[in-house]
User: Fold these one by one.
Assistant:
Number 1:
Amino acid sequence: MFDQLKQQPADKILALMQSFREDPRDDKIDLGVGVYRDAEGVTPVMRAVKAAEARILEQQTTKAYTGLAGEPGYAKALTGLILGADVAPSRIAAVATPGGTGAIRQGFELIRMASPDARVWISAPTWPNHPSILKYLGMPFSEYRYFDDAARDVDFAGMMEDLSQVAEGDVVLLHGCCHNPTGANLTLGQWQSVADLLLEKRAIPFIDIAYQGFGDGLESDAAGTRLIATQLPQALIAASCSKNFGIYRERTGLLIALSSDDAMQKLAQGNLAYLNRQNFSFPPDHGARVVMTILDDPELRADWKAELEEMRAGMLALREQLADELRQRSNSDRFDFIARHRGMFSRLGATPEQVEAMRRDSGIYMVGDSRLNIAGLNARTVPILAQAIIDAGV
Ligand code: PMP
């Protein structure tokens, strides 16, 4: 039987991690995988997470199953963080999922169950798991233009032109903030234009929000999502706690379906629970409980926010430093987009040959499309990267 299987394409980022590990050079720099690192190159367990875990260890009296939707307090707390107080609870259906990836996968499955012919529109480029899962599920999808390679900014005219092809009932996948892989994001005015278009087209927005707090701050990073949530009758939101709580391996995500009325909300909630049941029954609980404990406790919440803010400020400072170094070395402002981008990633705009040259000559590892992880840098390595970018002729 297993001899009938076909070889599956390797995950490019995981393959890159492997070649980084095998590189014997001491001064190699990993800007590949999308994991936050501090100046020492460590992905820390956040202080509030440690404290919440200690509390759970001490106070938890059972590990019996939760509900199919997970712990309701988790959904409530995380929904509050994402949506604020603007969306009526009667519109919200939500289930805990294994990571943001689990939420995206189940969101797609919910779409397929409700409307098998609905086309999902994804940005070009996007996080490669989006098309990969859609392909696996056999769902129709199309790309819309998103990134202007020359300006290294959002190609908003191209995006709106492509989205004018969206049909009634189609789904448009948007990154809530900190677009992966480009780092280029919509302004609030542009979010409004997208909301108006989707409303007119009677299309469904699906927001993937995996980096809230990594861009302009917890509130600003959720502004586009809130605008969509309050103005569109229906929406899907897939949230990940991997990055902003630093609990990558705990697999902590949430899938939210917003409905326009009570009956639809109940139907959505029942179907979300059903999907959990078919796929894995009960969702993982530990990470969800940690998140809930932090968000519901004023002291832990304040400490978590402070540490997240330090991380965000650190990434912004690295962006500024890299843009400055490149301004001096290139005698131009053509790399200023690095300071304008937000989140962990920027797409540099280097050719695959230039990416390869930086790897070969300077031991700098970035993804082949020249996505670099800003959090893989520190004040010492920024000038090294800047010089390598110039030497490679980017
Ligand atoms: N969406 C995007 C855009 C991401 O970059 C990621 C993480 N790489 C995720 C979702 C999901 O992350 P996880 O499954 O680890 O929570």
Number 2:
Amino acid sequence: MKVSVTYKIPDAGIEFLKKNYEVWVNTEERNLTKEELKKVASESDAMITLLSDKIDEEVIEAGKGKLKVISNYAVGYNNIDVKAANDNGIVVTNTPDVLTETTADLAWALMMASARRIVEADHFVREGNFVGWKPELLMGQDIFGKTLGVIGLGRIGLAVARRAKGFNMKVLYNKRTPMPKDMESEFGFEYAEVDEILENADFISLNVPLTPETDHMLDKEKLDKIKKNAVLVNTSRGKVIDEAYLAEKLEKKEIAAAGLDVFENEPQVNEKLLKLDNVVVAPHIGSATKETRDKMSMMVAEDIDSVLSGGQAKNVVKSWGGSFILEFKNIDEIKISKIAKALSKKLKTGHVILLYGDLGTGKTTFSKYFIGSRIKTAMVTSPTFAIENIYGENPRIHHIDLYRIQDPYEIEYIDLFADKEDIYIVEWADYLDYLKPEKNIEIYLDYSKEDISKRDLKIKINDDIDIFDAINQEVERWK
Ligand code: NAP
Ligand code: GLV
Ligand code: GLV
């Protein structure tokens, strides 16, 4: 079987693949053209692609029949038409987690360089201008004690925010589904609307993926809301910002400074930006350390090997827009139990249900009805020493209570979802937020309400219209 690599990546993964596959690597130090990508897709069983390779419907079409897996050498996968790939039975994978801390370091490097004018200072010295210490030379801005706003508090956003603690900063964050309150207070972060962040933060870090929703998320109107003394850092994707307008704002000093690792039309960079002293630019090097790039290389190689040898890749991505959200206001425990039953009937192997918050008086209400309606004899217990109990057969149901884990970071080291043929129901999934399993149903319960007959419930179902329909039918019955 043939694996093609569209641009030379670190050797680790390539050497690994060479043991079992024919491996072709583009060593020309240039990106492949569309026609070349199509040709490669048509001849390969697997492809390793770069974030700069546009893998659109046409390329996928060319690979149809032979191509089984596309592994993007990046965590972001906005360059790939995932839906077209999935519709043609092609698995798409990426490289999450291994680059999280590395990219967060770069966001901080840009933030500090912008705030303290490091690049200007470097030029100043090299150009022979350092003729003596001066009280008002190259004055920048303080970082410690200020307010950091993170837009897109995911894996990288969280790592950026965590670093702010060492600088005694106040952290505001935004994401579509806020963290549960107890987790917010554990981290000491505060949820805020995007506008609120723009209007209040001294430092803003963008860490959202590029999706139809986040394309030009910071448009003219939003950029106008940013404080005059603020520093904006973008290590996500260039298209998240209206780059031309940002350049205008920076030129007029209506935004103090910016640190940019990504650009709207890479590798081109807006001419105006390049003329400005208050901008620090980098050529998209967020994950560029030797250690991390080696790990990414192994990650894409191992996922390709898993798929080509008939198994499942670890880092499968899904297309955007596949989630369905259901919201219930003021529902009692009977209704919660009915939803649990409706959901339970529709579950298939590989499903993972994530329960956020405390679901019911005795924490296990949801799980009890859920498991009980599948396995008549099940007595659901809250796991004590082990964090999980397993019920039934074909498929087995794992009941996991993450409240048992004392240190949330510990979760990263446990392979909770090892058995792909089983069903998982996870309580206190709050602790799992940055390590989401592939196929999931997320259930949020607002447990801040004293009156347990008036709870708010939100269910987010990823990619499964059947389950969405089943719950809707149950709700119809209440009317
Ligand atoms: P992630 O864990 O998926 O985090 C993304 C976060 O953004 C999620 O928490 C998500 O939370 C939030 N989000 C998504 N849509 C949003 C919206 N419309 N409004 C507000 N928040 C939204 O991904 P990651 O691993 O941190 O990576 C983030 C991105 O960084 C990647 O997609 C990639 O583009 C970029 N990146 C760049 C470099 C570089 O070299 N500069 C390196 C690595 C990654 P909700 O689902 O709750 O909204
Ligand atoms: C880099 O930008 C990535 O998405 O990994
Ligand atoms: C600066 O170098 C100082 O000593 O304050």
Number 3:
Amino acid sequence: GGIGELDGRLTGCRACPRLVAWREEVAATKRAAFRDWEYWGRPVPGFGPHDAPLVVVGLAPAAHGGNRTGRMFTGDASGDFLFAALHAVGLASQPTATAPDDGLELYGVRVTSPVHCAPPENKPTPAERDTCRPWLAAEIGLLNPRAIVVLGAFGWQTLLPVLADAGWQLPRPRPRFGHKTVVTLRRAEPDAARPAAGGARGEGPGRDVADELHVIGCYHPSQRNTFTGRLTPPMLVDLLHQAADLAGL
Ligand code: SF4
């Protein structure tokens, strides 16, 4: 199956008891400002085209953001910051994301997260990260991207093993997360990987399996980083420009 089928299965996942309880409790109690909303209260799938050569990997949906709207990064302060920057780079049709029916479209980029359910205090446990990792692995495998922007160390630490399992050769020692750190990965066995790609694939982007994959670290646009000026809008725009270039956009 393709990304649509994957997303459909994901939204029924109940593998992490603590997160299932939290996402549903938040959906039932709500925040006063959103009392008229019917909260999504389920796993939040990635958002963006199914053939995106650029992927942005965050952390997890926000309790009153994605867990409310059902769309990744939609309806919270981090998303406001991210979509404004994506729009400035020409990767989004509009600078704001408020609701699933707001008309927002992404161009060539898909945003997703290593943990798909809202965690208490935005902190998934290592066990929850490991339980959710196969969803990320499946999504990245179907997208076959050229470049991945990773928002923060949590995503970085989750993604690198996924890429190693997918046949990408990781430098040793394993590169540490840093803002603007770019790691270019190559296939561990390029000749072995190639015949399985291309036309053999029923769905998905139909691109040949790339010889190179660029992984770019970026500070997470959390309020802890944006309020303190650790991550500014020009910094994020600059980094997304670079990432779009590396993705061939
Ligand atoms: Fe399933 Fe991931 Fe949600 Fe855990 S975090 S319940 S693995 S979708």
